Structures
1.
Amino acid sequence: MTQPTDAEIADAIAPLLADPGRTAIFSDLDGTLAPIVDNPRDSQVSDRTRQIFAALSTRYGAAGIVSGRPCLDARRVLDLDSLIYFGNHGFEALRPGVGSTPEIARVIGEHRDDVHAFTDPNLDEDLTGAVGLRIEDKRTIVALHWRGVEDEAAAEAEAERLAAEAEKAGLWIHRGRKVLELRPPVEVSKGTAMKSLLEGGRYGAAFYAGDDSTDVDAFKMLEEMRAGGAVTSCVRVAVLSDESPPELVANADLAVEGIEGLEPVLEMIVA
């Protein structure tokens, strides 16, 4: 796929505009709305992106973010209280007007502490620090990052070694762009996050933009719900980079060249 023309974009998004009150507009954050950076704390969105999402939240039935970040961190980056935030790839949710305590996905149940039961005795901070592997504790998930470290190959190898041990202990592993996550063994993903929002018939159309393998889960769920009649239409936009997994484009309706390529699509949706 190549950057779509304005006419192709207009044709794709037409079902979203037909009934805005029954349309949900959602997006991944890092790599989709905000550039990928070595330190996630440095991530920023443009002022225009912030303005667009503020407008989306007033014009459509629902608008929000589905991120690998915790909800509160995603909200910090966007600095918008009017959005719905699904954090930790769907393990938690934060809706407008409910304060600052995210709701944890019920399906986690007794598995809430599984990841820490493994990492607390098995993560050797001296070893991970020596190879530059960064540990991000997201409560129910622990992420291992190696982007931008001096020896990415050595850090990735240590992450994979830990992943192999974690799998033996019953955890599930998810790989992204220079990050590997240790997760509890429950069916939670960006796809199940979107399903929790859309099921029940409140929304007839949905939009989702993403750049990584975790976003493919949302793409596939939207198509599954469209095929099953839970929504009448969906628009899935792949935001491409040189690190994009092949399955991203394979499951998308449109593909755009990076964050800059997504902006014209959002502009047309919010116009």
2.
Amino acid sequence: MLTETAGTTGTRLRVARQARGFSQQQLAGMAGVSRQAVSAVEAGHSDPSLRVAFALAQALGMTVEGLFGPGDLAQPVPAVPVAPDEAGALDRSGGRMLLAPVGDRLVALPLRGDAAAGMGFLAAGGLTVAVGARGAPGAPGAPGASAGTIAVRPIDPPRPTLVVAGCDPALPLLGAPLGLLDPPVSFAWWPCGSQQALRLAAAGLVHAAGVHLRDAEGGYNATAATGLPGGAEVVGFTAWREGLAVRPELAGAVAGVDSLVKQQLRVVNREAGAEARRLLDRELDRLSIDPAEIPGYGTSAAGHLQVASAVTAGLADAGVASEPAARAYGLGFVPLADERFDLVLPGAHLGSREVQGLLRALTSPLLLAQLASLPGYDISACGDRLR
């Protein structure tokens, strides 16, 4: 019955176990076998006996053929993309996606551009399937799909994954402490501005929205959770100074936004809705400067590190970014505001395993040590319940 190689058999068992959030020890206990037996099968060192195969399949709620037999890991499933404005591009076959369960839906995060790479490519959870293709939602005999979904063929079964949207480049540091939980929780980051992060949270597409939005009173994030259906909690993450990241040779010559105009320096801007762009606009308004007087005002970078990278590459002389981003690239920094970056947790997901894992990770010594190692961050409120 077990027709595949030991390596493929092990891969199927591993992804089925991880998709259900079980550790090797937990699965072994449920199946009445040793952890060493589970480990040996997953490592490809041996095929399971029929008794062990039946026990493992029963513990995972699968058939033996479904767990260890030949065939695709899964047929296409409907998923909601976090970037619906790119639906046309996402309908093409072969688009790499990260798949994560959020509530009772599957969410697809396109792996493209900055979202696809850290120092290398990230592992995809699935590939898009062209509309009307055999097995795609909407085709004869395929599972139903609601409006706004796309068809994705999983490469690995979706597993418990904390999905966070926001612009702080320190967010991926959550991945390590989440991975140490028993059972572990995976991590997915959708880099975007604060306003877009809140829109995704309101639509139920992320477990947490990272925001640093200035209130009318001059504080940060006090009203960020008020518009979410079902309410929300706000938990501290980091704080920083936001300001102008400038080329090192200009550090002594730039005192503020007015210096950009006087010296006709070129800027790289952030996208509409990003707090960094709003900060620049507030400074321009305070100084009665027309944005048209700033070369490069109409440009757009997707995050703090991207702004710093553009300045380092000589594509701009300056840009508004966080101090940690400027320091990471060895740039000069002119502070304009003290900001707080918090995580908004929609009420619908507060009891989920992913969010409970996040709350544990936020106070872990591993995360705090990593954040403390980055110059420019204030982590004194990390993990604090603020609202």
